Amino acid sequence: MSITDIDRDTIVSVRAIGKRYGDVTALDDVSFDLQAGKIYGLLGRNGAGKTTLMKILTGQEAASSGTVNVFEGSPFENADVLRNLCFVKESQKYPEDMKVKHVLTAAELLLPGWDRDFAGRLMDDFRLPDRRRVKKLSRGMTSALGIVIGLASRAPLTLFDEPYLGLDAVARQLFYDRLLADYAEHPRTIVLSTHLIDEVSNLLEHVVVIDGGRAVVDEDVDSLLGRHATVGGPSAAVDAFVAHRTVLHHEQLGGHARATIQGLLTGPDREDATRRGLELSPVSLQQITIRNTVGGEAHRPEGAKP
Ligand SMILES: Nc1ncnc2c1ncn2[C@@H]1O[C@H](COP(=O)(O)OP(=O)(O)OP(=O)(O)O)[C@@H](O)[C@H]1O
């Protein structure tokens, strides 16, 4: 891929944005790009700044500093940009006295990519009653309605912020299945903010992890998984193996130890581990996120690269 291709594929560009609410700094010097046709995970602890970031991307809030470009324009009060976006918020509210079918009609009017047949199939999948008034829906049904709107919108940039309050495991799996199947046929950019990282890890192609208002990880998932490993075995052998590496976490279990390390392991590194009687295993995306955010001071020897 040439540089020009990369530039053409960039649909969101965020540069050094900050957001302050009074004396609270919700975002601090955040920069990243989003590419067309990718599924992103926006991860981080409670209060990290994920919702604030999504509100700025969708023009619901203005950044206090820095620049945001979405489809080459500022999203703030910009109808041309906004019609290409669909933002399904955490605990999304719909007009209480409206029937579900009227909510869908309103969505269809606002969203140019709307697929009515697909919306109908999703309504059946999630067993949503279209004649019921919004105020009579259960918590999980209201979340499912948001998911139907987000998926059927086929918006070039669709953002889901913790869309599943009250949704049971079957409905969540249905969401992931329908999302993946529809995305394969209609690629677009999807941003999913979630705390259920293990559940979505094989959906995500790229993650941005926010911690304390700063972007601490911005990387393709394959690359991220490829440069983390857990090494386990006799304590002395583990300690010797990790001595010159970045250790994100270390735990002692009697005479044995396990360490989560960061940095690519070469073929010879792996052979060395085997020779020392150590076992190497992959680290899950959830563990990587936790290790990069729990005030987690990595032990990084001098010269070691993250
Ligand atoms: N309108 C507001 N006024 C004051 N502070 C706010 C406002 N909105 C957000 N904040 C603060 O900004 C910080 C980031 O909040 P944000 O909702 O973006 O976090 P989050 O990562 O989405 O959290 P969660 O995972 O719990 O939903 C928090 O400290 C929050 O209290």
Structure description:
With 306 residues, the chain is of the alpha/beta class. The chain has twelve helices and 13 strands. Strands 5-6-7-3-8-9 form a six-stranded mixed beta sheet, with helices on both faces. α5 packs antiparallel against α6. The site of adenosine-5'-triphosphate has 11 residues, from β2 and α2.
SSE map:
Layout: H1 3-9, E1 10-21, E2 24-35, E3 39-43, H2 50-57, E4 65-70, H3 79-82, E5 85-88, H4 100-110, H5 116-125, H6 139-152, E6 157-161, H7 169-185, E7 189-193, H8 197-200, E8 206-211, E9 214-220, H9 221-226, E10 228-234, H10 235-242, E11 246-253, E12 256-262, H11 267-275, E13 279-281, H12 285-293
Parallel strand pairs: 3-7, 3-8, 5-6, 6-7
Antiparallel strand pairs: 1-2, 1-4, 8-9, 10-12, 10-13, 11-12
Helix pairs in contact: 5-6
Task: Please name the defining characteristics of this protein.
binds adenosine-5'-triphosphate, alpha/beta, ATP-binding, 4-stranded antiparallel sheet, globular, 6-stranded mixed sheet, 306 residues
**Global mean pLDDT:** 91
Radius of gyration: 22 Å
In spatial order, strands of the major sheet run 5-6-7-3-8-9
Per DSSP, what share of the residues sits in E-state strands of 2 or more residues? 25-35%
Bound small molecules, by name, code or SMILES, are:
adenosine-5'-triphosphate
Helix content: 25-40%
Q: How would you describe the shape?
A: globular
Overview in brief:
With 306 residues, this protein is of the alpha/beta class. Helix content is 35%, strand content 28%. The protein is globular and about 65 Å long.
